[in-house]
Amino acid sequence: MIISNDAVVSIHYTLSDNDGNILDSSSGKDPLHYLHGHGNLIIGMEEGLEGKANGDRVSLTIAPEKGYGEKSDKLIQKVPKSAFGDQRVDKGMQFNTENGHIVTITDIGKDDVTVDGNHPLAGVHLNFEVEVINIRQATKEEVEHGHVHEPGGHAH
Ligand code: ZN
To answer: Which domain covers residue 99, as residue numbers?
Structure first.
């Protein structure tokens, strides 16, 4: 089968920026398994993989609007240091908010801390080298849940 909606696709990938820095890779790790057509991957990735077959190698160049979006100044905020209570804050520290966003501390002033709610890859042109290593039909349950169930199942 080829990659289309409701296919469970396994890929190996390497992600680099336009300067050739490797930002992420599945090399030496388990492949990434995802359910195609359910918004589990960025749009540019799903569009680029649509119609591909098992064993295909694909190079994808993805602009921010089809990746993690452009950087928005509105997502950069100053919050009082006191908001962090006793927690130690360092420049570059990242943490997850309750709604699943990644927030990065970009500056620490005398009384304020600057936090950037942009995705770390916002505004970045993404270059993916992808190898398709497996494609299978999703189960009914996977389609209903909108995500992949690993062998052995899981509790979602
Ligand atoms: Zn599930």
So the answer is: 73-116
